[in-house]
Amino acid sequence: MSKKQDWFTGIFPALVTPFTPDDRVDEATYRELIRFLLPHVNGVVPCGTTGEFSSLTLEEKKQVIAICLDEVGGRVPVLAGTGCQSTRETVELTAWAREAGATGALVVAPYFLKPAFNEIFDHYREVDKVGLPLVLYNIPQCAGTHYQWWTAEGMGLAFDHVIGMKDSSGDMPFFMAALEKLRGTIGLFCGHDEIAAAAMLAGADGAILASANLIPDIWQEIYQAAQHGQVEFVRRRAKEIQILTRLVVRKGGPQAVKEGLRMIGLPRMSNVRLPMIQGGEFEREDYEDLRTQLENLGKIGTRTVTLGGREVEYALPADIPPRFEDLTLCVGEGFAGPPFSEIAHIDLLLGWKSGPVGKAIDRARNEPRPGHELAVLSERPLTLLVPTVTVRTARARQLVYEEAAAGIRLALEHAIARHNLPEALLDDLCLIANVFVHPAASIRQRVKINNYKAMRGAIRKALEGRPTLGELIAEKEAARHPFRYAP
């Protein structure tokens, strides 16, 4: 007998929870987020993992769900996250959500104590008695327990009010087994952003995703295309968003999403709550990667800004002020990896050709530097490569002057194409890139790509005056030496 519900299909963003500077739920920004998402989604999920439910008090969870229900106003289903560590509290919150008007409840397996499967079964049996449509939530990387296909099948069939399952494990064999056993009986959603497109092609009824906060329209396109069997479209679109989804899933989840939302138009969006911190699991090089992906997807557009006294078109996130006065001498730093031996570190000087950077280039080109020979990589803008480590071997020469240099040229091309190096300034600017290539490096492609990423970030930081003093103070607790951990 099918227990599927018509409303449980499509794309449901797992909403982040914004906080005020004094660490309260930020109702105004939360409502703004929901309004931003509603035109593109089939439902919303407050108080999920991305919503930091485990860092919210019971009263805060109720507040967040109530705000969401009010702002949505019945336009789409609200699947409220009601899972708690204890069965009693889960039952209490689920019953409250039913009375508040939630369409259904997303209930994570009891976490931390790692109950056995018969204990998980008994937990869900008690929650099922509440009578609200339930969606089982499998996320072993957080809960500590992983459903087996036979336990998922058992719970999906045994309980009257279980109408679906969200699987965030990223375990495609498990999901395929669930499709075999339960498709048509309950709704099956993918919750792992990196495989969501493949899961929808395989037969998933939809997806509950953190990255749907950032690109709800693209995920809706993928869902609709999968429903209509447009395989090539899904493959192409999935490839275009793969780096973004990887960053969100593997690099801090809520913080990655929140920083991305600030970039694309919600500048008041907060950081995560402790124990997670800005600059922690979601690192500064990840910020630069995420920004690039949002630019590539058209989510960050150009604005007219003042650079060095000139008005130019510049691709700038919504949370960065659009005015940079002095380009006489600018400093930027870029860092990118993995792996460890192929890590790239670039210290960049940027300025006018007529200023100190240009004069330094003129002087350096006329001075012999054995083992640190300079290389002009571009004439427009004039760009000089200076190796940090003494180049002693043929392999090191190849990695520095071919692979790292190719990555830097690629970064220059990208910066020009994406309006991070405005065309109007190219004839007057010059750059000196101090380039580190590890003596043990061997993977040529990684040296190239990591130097591309490091240079890309260094250019933007130099032009935008980042990190600012405020950023440094805010992230001082997260600062770590890249080669040695020292708290």
Count the beta strands: 15
Radius of gyration: 25 Å
Number of helices: 16
Strand order of the largest sheet: 1-7-6-5-4-3-2
Query: What value does the average pLDDT take?
Result: 93
Number of domains: 2
CATH superfamily of the largest domain: Aldolase class I
**Quick one: biggest sheet?**
7 strands, parallel
Question: What global shape is seen?
Answer: elongated
Proportion of beta-strand residues: 15-25%
Examine the secondary-structure arrangement and name the CATH architecture of the largest domain: Alpha-Beta Barrel
Per CATH, the class of the largest domain reads: Alpha Beta
- The low-pLDDT segments are none
Helix amount: 40-55%
**CATH fold field value of the largest domain:** TIM Barrel
State the end-to-end distance: 57 Å
Summarize the structure.
The chain is of the alpha/beta class and 487 residues long. It has helices at residues 27-37, 58-72, 87-100, 117-128, 140-143, 149-158, 172-182, 196-202, 216-227, 231-250, 254-264, 284-296, 356-364, 394-417, 444-464, 469-474, and strands spanning 10-13, 79-81, 104-108, 134-138, 162-167, 187-190, 206-209, 302-307, 310-315, 323-324, 330-336, 344-352, 375-379, 382-387, 429-437. The mean pLDDT is 93.
Please tell me about this protein's structure.
The chain is 41% helix and 17% strand. It has 16 helices and 15 strands. α7 links the parallel β5 and β6 (187-190). By secondary structure, it is an alpha/beta fold. It folds into 2 domains: 10-250, Alpha-Beta Barrel (TIM Barrel); 327-478, Formaldehyde-activating enzyme (Ribosomal Protein S5, domain 2, 2-Layer Sandwich), CATH 3.30.230.60.
